[in-house]
Amino acid sequence: MLAPRQDIKAQLKQALREALLALGLDELPEVVVQETPPDKEGDYGTPLAMSLARALRKPPPQIATELLQRIVLPPWVRRAFVVGGYLNFELEPAFLLENALAPLPPFAPKGGKVLLEHTSVNPNKELHVGHLRNICLGDSLARILRFVGHRVEVMNYIDDTGRQAAESLFALAYFGLKDPDPSVKYDHWVGEAYVRLHRAMADAEQKAQIEAGVQATLHCLEAGELRDEVDRILRAQLLTMYRLGAEYDALVWESDIVREGLLQKAMRALEATPYVFRPSQGKYAGALVMDTSPFIPGLEDPYLVLIRSNGTSTYTAKDIALQFWKMGLLEGLRFRLYDTQPSGAPLYSTHPQGEPMPFGGAQETINVVDARQSHALRVVQASLEVEGRHDLAERCFHLAYETVLLEGQQMSGRKGITVSVDEVLDEAVRRVRAVIAEKNPDHPSPEEAAEQIGVGAVRFAMLKTEAKKQIDFRYEQALSLEGDTGPYVQYAYARAGSILRKAEEMDLLGERPDLAQATPYEVALAKTLLRFGEVVQEAARARAPHLLAQYLLDLAAAWNSFYNAKTPEGKPATPVLTAPPGLRGVRLALVAALRQTLRQGLGLLGLKAPEVM
After folding, report:
1. Please, what are the averages of pLDDT over each run of 10 residues along the chain (613 residues)?
2. Which of 58, 136, 383, 505 shows a CA-CA span of 20 to 30 A to 195?
């Protein structure tokens, strides 16, 4: 049994800190250790001397030399040397490889609970491309946070008292649509009625009649009279979410927030502060208003209406009540079992006939909401500051993401200019199925593989780009086996698995590695493998799944470089199965470690790892 993997960079950083203390520094700067570029000597290096040059008034090479003279190196460092202003470290190749082959130790449990809200699609029509990024970001981040030791609760907010739901349900009645088309998924069928209603509202006479009907439907929704109708739409939407691989811990219905009195409690708490009041005159007369100027400077109008003068609440007021519940400032929601998800995990939902359960009360919240809602989320954060809870406000994180184009086109639900998530997934799977039929007609399970690769390609395309950048999703690019795609990473996994299966057939898997025979090719791949734990931790810290996606692309590229390496004579430089005994054992162990890391990384991004492509 191999010992757990050591953190090489952490140990080098500690050695450098002790060398700095030996130099007489009282205040230690941030110590950075990074891999050296492929064309430079050594395995790792630090630019520490350059960051100290101004403070110490010495040239970086001199500082690096003084550090070298004082540093006590771990035994696995073969040599340390100065290159310009850098202090570089060359490690024992056998140690590097042994460490890369060792299992990643489990991360220590983190204190507190993180409540992560994502998806939260209006229950009025099918999910469209614009929702894809939200689901993929939220689900992947939850997986990553759990992996590094956080206790995560995933919530999906159901806005069942909003106008969009009212419009869809009224549309069904307005057009006399009582019998759904059995050939059409239910949320799509309802969505067609929603779009049709908005087209009808272009006629002034119809608009007045429709508006009255929508308002009446809103009152029924708020009274909880149409919950079953909304639930039918929601269950159809959940089928799409499940197909994407997303699952949740709890559904929180807006009507329950209102019905259980959380909205009124939140408003009373805010009204007890100096920042929330009811003006007696002016345009805000009679309304409950929050002055956000002490917390959000620079606004042209810092007053925000929470309760309108007619007594109706704004979206913001409901969002504030929800946030107060999330962070334990309010209690009172009841839950009951709603569904058993594809993984077998239970899904709970708020319900008037439910029971108290330990949902909410988190020490940190993450809301995955598109960047256009940044001000609204900042207002929710400010409400915590108004309540005097600056500590909670600092732990209220908005994961903002930019919009998604499909083949260059912007989506619009009301105008009917949409492509549904179901259509995107179906098309991706159809295209993959055609490629499998052409390239691998004897595939043992083509349907399963097409689903895994097609859905995985869509998810990866939503995750590989930094959230603050817009995505233009294009099928041909996303489904390619080359370049920065999910199938490229999946293919690297499948290729590694193919080698290991052949090794098993040849009874080679138990061969003992001889680390002394390792070449620079194995060392290069091992160094890329060793970055996995560090990258996952940084992706969790920065709330940035794209960092893990980019790492997996780097790892797949490093594996392909290893696999395709040639000698100066043009012969394969790194054969695995035909390598000399001992070296073959090293390469087989390295392929197994690579496969395990790819599988873990793909799983954290919500992608399946197909055994055969």
Report:
1. 83 96 89 93 96 92 96 96 96 96 94 97 93 97 98 98 96 94 96 94 93 95 93 98 98 95 96 96 95 94 94 92 98 97 98 97 97 94 97 97 85 66 95 95 96 97 96 90 93 98 96 95 96 97 98 98 96 97 98 98 98 94
2. 136
Sign of CA dihedral 315, 320, 323, 328: negative
Q: The tokens of 234 are what?
A: 């929601």
pLDDT, residue 299, reads 92
Measured between alpha carbons, how far is residue 239 from residues 84, 232, 457 in Å?
58, 11, 19
Strand order in the sheet with 34-35: 34-35, 44-46, 86-91, 77-83
What's residue 419's pLDDT? 86
Can you give the three-state secondary structure of 374-424, one letter per residue?
Answer: HHHHHHHHHHHHHCCCHHHHHCEEEEEECCEEECCECCECCCCECCEHHHH
Among candidate residues 380, 363, 307, the one with its CA nearest the CA of residue 157: 380
pLDDT value at position 413? 54
In angstroms, the CA 551 to CA 539 distance is 10
Quickly list DSSP for 272-286: TSTTEE--SSSTTTT
From the list 526, 515, 461, the residue with the least C-alpha distance to 489 is 461
The pLDDT score that the predictor gives to residue 603 is 98
- Number of residues that make up the chain: 613
Give the 3-state secondary structure of residue 112. Answer: coil
Two structure tokens written together for 532? 């996995």
Domains observed in the chain: 6-90 (3.30.1360.70), 161-222 (no CATH)
CB 68 within 8 A of CB 87: yes
Cα–Cα dist 487/481, whole Å: 5
**Which residues lie closer than 8 Å to 3 by C-beta, 6 or more apart?**
102
How many other CB atoms sit within 10 Å of the CB of residue 89? 24
What is the rounded distance in angstroms from the CA atom of residue 487 to the CA atom of residue 133? 18
Q: What is the DSSP letter of 74?
A: -
Task: Find out whether 508 and 589 touch, Cβ atoms under 8 Å.
Answer: no
